[in-house]
Design goal:
This protein is an alpha/beta fold. The protein has a domain at 1-79 and 189-256: Rossmann fold (3-Layer(aba) Sandwich), CATH 3.40.50. It contains 7 helices and 10 strands. The chain has helices at 48-56, 95-105, 110-123, 139-152, 169-185, 197-203, 234-255, and strands at residues 4-15, 20-32, 37-41, 63-68, 71-72, 80-83, 157-161, 189-193, 206-210, 217-222. The strands form 2 sheets. A 6-stranded mixed beta sheet has the order 6-7-8-3-9-10, with helices on both faces. The protein is globular, with a radius of gyration of 19 Å.
Amino acid sequence: MARLTVDRVSKSFAVERDRSQVEALRNISFAVEDCEFTSILGHSGCGKTTLLNLIAAFEQPTTGRVTIDGVPSRAPDWKKTVIFQEYALFPWYTVRQNVTFGPEMKRLPKSEIAELADHYLNLVGLNGFADRYPGELSGGMRQRVSIARALAVQPSVLLMDEPLAALDAQTRAFMQDELLRIWQREPKTVVLVTHSIEEAVKLSDSIVVLTPRPGSIKALIRVDIPRPRSESDARVIALKEQIRDLIFEDFAKQIG
């Protein structure tokens, strides 16, 4: 059984102004195995974040279902955590307090909470910054706090909504390497929404390419290139070109 299954999922939204329906997603089906890293790619507005919200159970599908370990995902819970682009840290909490927030909400023993905080702060390389506040950290450091906070609740599935998009190019490349290092140290089932073909190819075991709205699956791509993946590797270059052609084929139809 796959860790995460998206089974024939569609999503429509009501438009109050004229009582019409906007179809955001249509008949989406794919599976993510345990400890697999999957990316979702597509044009702006194709429904990537909507799909992530359905997996997180922030919203429910109009038709179809999402399951985790075979159980329908009907409400947010500790099995799945989300890392957002905007960090979503509590500015009045220290780094350590941000990381311990989830375990405290789970009412874990204090000794276990302390161990989890130490472990994940060390994992993301911030054990020397535990008493700092988010406003005292760089963007890359704040996102590492977000990663540590998400992992500290020990989810089955880690969901990421363009977590590196707000970073400058150099910091983003560094954080991609950091994200890969952390995932290889402590493998999790990961679903990443990204606009970056390069990021998806660098990080992923599989890539879901969506069509423009209503988002449906254009392609499911396995990435069998060994890590670490070099940008100069002919296989990496060919895969990027393949995905770029898939995405821009739809774009050309829209503008043509």
